[in-house]
Amino acid sequence: MPIVPWREQMSLNYPPLDEEHQDFLNVVNQAPVAAHAGDFSQMDWVFEKCYDYVRNHFAHEEDIMERIQFPDMEAHMNAHRTFIQNISEFRQRYENARTAADKKKAAIEAADFLNLWFLGHILSRDRLLKPYLVRLRNLPPRMNYNS
Ligand SMILES: [Fe+2]
Ligand SMILES: [Fe+2]
């Protein structure tokens, strides 16, 4: 699977979120390398990074959506919840694999899923936030923190 480069289309012109997306894209790009090499310790790292991402990044993005009163917040949050469910299922399948060959197969499937999910989510759902992020500037200072 080819490495996915960061593209201008992915940018929200808001560095705190852009940097988190860029960091995660790096993880997404490491996944097929680890999976195809059968490098399970690197694959474990990929799964751990996914959990960090849902804990930190989703919380951050959802907090911003609330502050800017993003109209499609509920659907976006549901997409986040679905990802958490999906990635947990992939992890489970990977953990439960009885042979190295099955584990590698599960890792490749998880890597493919991550790749497709990341592109789909950032280019459809996350991108919709872009025009609303200017609202952050007009919030009272207490709500206008930058992280
Ligand atoms: Fe995001
Ligand atoms: Fe998102």
What does this structure look like?
- The protein is an all-alpha fold and 147 residues long.
- The chain has one domain (14-136): Hemerythrin-like (Four Helix Bundle (Hemerythrin (Met), subunit A)), CATH 1.20.120.
- 69% of the residues lie in helices and 0% in strands.
- The chain is built from four helices and no strands.
- The protein has helices at 15-37, 40-67, 73-96, 100-125.
- α1 (15-37) packs antiparallel against α2, α1 packs antiparallel against α4 (100-125) and α3 packs antiparallel against α4 (100-125).
- The N and C termini lie far apart (33 Å).
- The model has no long low-confidence stretch (mean pLDDT 94).
| CATH class descriptor name | Mainly Alpha
User: Structural class from helices and strands?
Assistant: mainly alpha
What's the CATH superfamily, by name?
A: Hemerythrin-like
Tally of strands = 0
Count of discrete domains:
1
Biggest sheet character? none
List ligands, each type once: fe (ii) ion
The low-confidence runs, each spanning 5 or more residues with pLDDT under 50, are: none
Mean pLDDT: 94
What name is given to the CATH topology? Answer: Four Helix Bundle (Hemerythrin (Met), subunit A)
- Output the radius of gyration: 17 Å
CATH architecture descriptor text: Up-down Bundle
The amount of beta strand, in percent, is under 5%
- Shape label: elongated
Helix fraction bin: 55-70%
SSE ordering: HHHH
First and last CA, distance: 33 Å
- Oligomer status: single chain
Enumerate how many helices there are, as a single number: 4
